[in-house]
Fold this protein.
Amino acid sequence: MTRVKKGVNALKTRRNVLKAVKGYRFGRGTKEKQAYEAIVHAGRYSFAHRKDKKADRRGDWQVVISIPLKTAGISYSKFIDKMNKANVKLNRKMLAALAIENPSTFQKVVEKVM
């Protein structure tokens, strides 16, 4: 069997790894082994923080929804419970958008749920 050298593939991998860590500080931006470790850790953090970002957005929507509900005299948790029991299928993102952009429509939703 003929001998196959992996020079081209190794250089391509090294080039792609170092391209991905462009701008990283110290050895993580120049040394292949440290760069690869940095890529692995960055990938783990980005996955975890995408989940955190979704949770943060949901918290923001809850605050936006609860402000007009307080003027209506009902708490956020009781409103969501009554909304589920009334089988109103609006998610929190849509409710927050209604509360900001269309307060009159949001009030109609609150009246329907109550």
Summary: The first helix runs from residue 7 to 20. The mean pLDDT is 93. Residues 89 and 110 are 13 Å apart (CA to CA). The helical segments are 7-20, 32-72, 76-85, 92-101, 103-113.
